[in-house]
Amino acid sequence: MAARLGADAIGLVFYPASPRAVSINQVSDIVRGLPDKLTIVALFVDASRAEVENVINIGCIDLLQFHGNETASFCESFSVPYMKAIAVKDEQSLSANIDNYQSAKYILLDSYDPNVPGGTGKTFNWDVASSLSQELDLPLILAGGLTPDNIKAAVATVQPFGVDVSGGVESSKGIKDKVAMQSFIEGVRAGG
Question: Which domain covers residue 154, as residue numbers?
Answer without folding.
Answer: 2-190
